[in-house]
Amino acid sequence: MHILSIIRIIGILVMCFSGTMLIPAFVALIYGDGGGKAFMQAFVLSLVVGALLWWPCHHHKQELRSRDGFLIVVAFWFVLGCLATLPLLLFDAPHLTLASAVFEAFSGLTTTGATVMTGLDNLPKAILFYRQFLQWLGGMGIIVLAIAIIPLLGIGGMQLYRAEMSGPMKEQRIRPRIAETAKMLWIIYLLLTISCALAYWLAGMTPFDALTHSFSTVSIGGFSTHDASMGYFNSPLINAITVLFLLISACNFGLHFRAFSTIGRENFIKIYLRDPEFRFFISTQIILVVLCTFVMWNHNYFSSSWQDFEQVLFQAVSISTTTGYTTSDFTVWPSFVPVLLILASFMGGCAGSVGGGLRVARVLVLYLQGKRELKRVVHPNLVYPIKWGKTVLDERVIGSIWAFFSAYLLVFLVCLLGVIASGVTPFDAFNAVLACLNNLGPALGSVSSNMTAIPDNAKWILTIAMVCGRLEIFTLLALFTPAFWKA
Prior knowledge:
Blueprint: H1 3-18, H2 22-31, H3 36-54, H4 66-84, H5 86-90, H6 98-109, H7 125-140, H8 142-149, H9 157-164, H10 178-202, H11 207-218, H12 236-249, H13 253-260, H14 268-273, H15 276-299, H16 305-320, H17 336-344, H18 360-378, E1 387-388, E2 391-392, H19 395-421, H20 426-437, H21 456-470, H22 474-477, H23 482-485
Antiparallel strand pairs: 1-2
Helix pairs in contact: 1-3, 1-4, 2-3, 2-7, 4-9, 6-7, 6-21, 7-11, 8-10, 10-11, 10-12, 10-13, 12-16, 15-16, 15-17, 16-17, 18-19, 19-20, 19-21, 20-21
């Protein structure tokens, strides 16, 4: 393992990240409501840390191997999260403990959206912008951005890409060269962000709210600049725009590229309809909305049937895609609905998207595997391959998905027991771990709107859960195996 080369690359990434502190400092300068000094101090400290890591190792440029890439990604995410905490600690208000500041920073970077901050409407614009911007950077992944723009990472970029990207289909490339793939992913991501910001602005948001909410919408993060989240705007049009961009962002970005690159040569809608994961994702969204709407109609919860449908549509898409926006307190709806929505977050977004959870592709394969085993009960000698579209899935892929599912449950149980041992009630602990491991944000009980009631020692455990969910567990767990460290 090339430790010095790994430290060199982490140093480069940290120095690049330090530049992002200048953007909220500029926001503080524009609005003049404070925060500029904290971000400038954080910029200098981050730059110094990056330089101290890079300079002693700048001559070491060995080619990266697969396990080097895993170690870089995990180490950088933890270093980055710690440095992202600096502005939150340097601000006079809100005053956060170390555990709370680390939790908030990691929640932003992992696009979880769980927060320990209240009174958002009265905070300086710079800190509000920074929280949203962290989610935008973490959404597509700052490692993927680095692969796209830093030539020094051209060698071994595939190892970083594999460790950073999500889902069981991470070996697929949009372009032959991995740097080109990273660039195309970020171009799509940037265009979606611009389109979302313009749509929000035209729908009535202020330019600041439109830009910042486009960050957390396209990244499926869920942070807002208001305590009431999207309910602050009380606009059916803004809700509809949010649902549209959440659905787009929860789909595979590689599928978006393939679809729009065929415009003029082929009907791009057919590209989506031919994709098994997309069909399964849209079908489950429709079923979820129909079930919840029927329950709300049966209880006559809102003043009109249309309002029932509108509220359910927004909350169903927001929670099931692991975004976490809210327009009202959905936890007090008829109990079947909030429980179903929270459980739906386990599926999350598609592979290759910015959503959290198990991923739609894995859930689909597990479903197909279950169907096959039921048929084998009746016909033991039946040869029944599992197909992904027209392609027969390798049994090793199916086995790896079951292994991931088992590891997911194991991490969930370990974190759950740890949070309960920290003094949290079992119900609240279950919801807090669910919200963090699925990168969801809100849940039920005392953590339905924020995590301020969670003790500091439990926040450290939940921070680890958020990173596990963002890095899809195996990337992190691999570091704890003896085989990883063998020469």
